[in-house]
Every structure is written in structure tokens, then in C-alpha cells.
């Protein structure tokens, strides 16, 4: 399926099957596989009529952990709690669960890479999901760090991610397109393109790091100047600077 459809399918699966799923790339296609029971099978086939199922060996309940592997981004080690980071690593530990964002997705890694090159200051993670980017920012030296998400579950997960990593991140529930956003030196948003474009029109920051869209796409950013861009595995992330008023 096209990359955009794969991303929608990932989000659907993460919401309903938070224990995770397998992903396999093949020429011209991406396969997503979920370990589940009969009721889960019915739900998946209802949402994806072309889905197929097969019996698996015992022990499938824990097999999903094999597919959450550590990654590196911005000089940080990012991985799940059942894998110990190297002794000398600056680690961000994220438990794959109820909110999107393990650190492995190209958009997340690209955001963190771009953040690592910026001058440190205050930061707002708009649409924080699991909180991995906010926690990574705190690890990189940004402060104070605030994170908001419209989803109550994401807010709770992001707060737990911050506690697990022993960093200070203020997390709260907010709609980035409706509620007043706090002032920050940097705003980061790893969300879909249409939301990124609307957020840029109301963010109160001097620098914006955005992602969540394909490399073939470019946010309309009136009042901002593009200063950096990273493309990774078909996805893109951008750095914008606030344009000076003439």
C-alpha cells in the first residue's frame, strides 16, 4: 500500500493493539502483522478487507518485543525498557504502549536529529504522543520543556515517559489548533501535514521543527523561512525560522 496508507494503518493498529505489530517491507509493498485472538481477527478483517490470518506457535504474546529495537538519533540511544542501553549512552527509554511514538519512526528520528543541532532554550512539543521527542529534547539540554496533546491517554503516557527517564517535562492536555499555546524558543510538531500548517500560523516561537509528512511534501509556512530539511526513508522534517517583519 502507499506510504500514506501505511501510516494510517500503523496509527489504527497502535490504537487498538498497543502491544505492537510486526512490519516487513517488500518490493512495492509493506506488510503489517498483528498477533491477536479471534475477536481481534474479526476487527482487523472488518477494517482491512484484504487482510489474511494464520495460526502461530505458542509464545506469540511476547514475540512482539523482538521487533522493538533501539535506535540512535541526535546522539541519543532510544529503546524499550527490556533492552539495557550501553553504559556510556545518553538514553531515552520508551515503553511501546498506548500512545504513538517509540522513537524508531523516521519522522521521530529526523526531528531529534534536527533538534540536536539547534541552540538550546525553552521548547514546546505540540502533539507529543508518547513524549519521546519532549524527553529527548530534555536529554539534549532544552529547558524548560512543555508537551501537549489532545488525547488524555497520550498525556498520561508522556508524563510517565518523563518520569521513567527522570527528566522534567510539563505535560498537559490541549488542542494545538484551538487552545492558546505557551511561548517557547522552539516548537516541535511531529504530526500530519495539515495540522503542521495550521500550527505554524499560531505557534509563538522563533524556531519550528516539523515532521509527519512525506519527503515529497512541503508545509505551507507563511511568516516562516525554511532553514534546514532532513529526509529519511521517504519522510521529511523541516526547521523553520520566524521571518523578520518588514
How would you characterize the overall build of this protein?
The structure is a single chain. α4 (106-116) packs parallel to α5 (132-140). A seven-stranded mixed beta sheet has the order 8-7-6-9-10-12-11, sandwiched between helices. It folds into two domains: 3-65, no CATH class; 99-242, Rossmann fold, CATH 3.40.50. Helix content is 28%, strand content 28%. It contains seven helices and twelve strands. It is α/β, with parallel strands linked by helices. β7, α6 and β8 (169-173) form a beta-alpha-beta unit.
Summary of the model, kept short:
The protein has helices at 3-16, 38-47, 60-63, 106-116, 132-140, 152-164, 193-200; strands at 22-26, 29-33, 71-73, 76-79, 91-93, 123-126, 145-149, 169-173, 184-190, 205-214, 224-232, 235-242.
Strand percentage, roughly? 25-35%
The CATH architecture category of the largest domain equals 3-Layer(aba) Sandwich
Structural class: alpha/beta
Backbone shape:
globular
- Helix share, percent: 25-40%
- Rg, nearest Å: 18 Å
CATH 4th-level superfamily of the largest domain:
Vaccinia Virus protein VP39
Distance between the termini: 46 Å
The CATH class of the largest domain, by name, is Alpha Beta
Rounded average pLDDT: 87
Number of domains: 2
Major β-sheet annotation? 7 strands, mixed
- CATH-derived topology of the largest domain: Rossmann fold
Low-confidence stretches: none
Spatial sequence of strands, sheet with the most strands: 8-7-6-9-10-12-11
Number of strands: 12
Helical stretch tally: 7
Order of helices and strands: HEEHHEEEHEHEHEEHEEE
Amino acid at each position: 500500500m502507499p506510504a500514506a496508507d501505511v501510516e494510517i494503518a500503523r496509527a489504527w493498529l497502535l490504537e487498538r493493539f498497543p502491544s505492537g505489530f510486526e512490519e516487513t517491507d517488500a518490493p512495492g509493498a509493506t506488510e503489517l502483522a498483528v498477533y491477536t485472538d479471534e475477536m481481534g481477527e474479526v476487527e482487523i478483517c472488518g477494517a482491512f478487507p484484504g487482510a489474511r490470518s494464520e495460526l502461530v506457535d505458542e509464545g506469540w504474546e511476547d514475540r512482539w518485543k523482538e521487533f522493538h529495537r533501539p535506535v540512535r538519533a541526535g546522539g541519543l540511544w532510544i529503546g524499550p525498557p527490556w533492552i539495557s542501553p550501553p553504559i556510556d549512552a545518553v538514553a531515552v527509554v520508551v515503553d511501546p504502549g498506548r500512545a504513538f511514538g517509540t522513537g524508531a519512526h523516521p519522522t521521530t528520528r529526523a526531528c531529534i536529529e534536527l533538534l540536536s543541532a539547534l541552540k538550546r532554550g525553552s521548547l514546546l512539543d505540540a502533539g507529543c504522543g508518547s513524549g519521546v521527542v519532549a524527553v529527548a529534547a530534555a536529554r539534549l539540554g532544552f529547558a524548560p520543556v512543555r508537551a501537549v496533546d489532545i488525547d488524555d491517554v497520550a498525556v498520561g503516557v508522556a508524563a510517565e515517559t518523563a518520569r521513567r527517564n527522570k527528566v522534567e517535562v510539563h505535560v498537559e492536555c490541549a488542542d494545538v489548533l484551538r487552545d492558546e499555546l505557551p511561548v517557547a524558543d522552539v516548537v516541535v510538531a511531529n504530526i500530519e501535514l495539515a495540522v503542521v500548517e495550521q500550527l505554524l500560523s499560531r505557534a509563538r516561537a522563533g524556531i519550528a521543527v516539523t515532521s509527519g509528512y512525506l519527503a515529497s511534501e512541503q508545509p505551507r509556512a507563511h511568516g516562516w523561512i525554511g532553514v534546514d530539511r532532513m529526509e529519511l526513508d521517504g519522510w521529511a522534517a523541516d526547521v523553520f525560522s520566524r521571518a523578520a517583519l518588514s
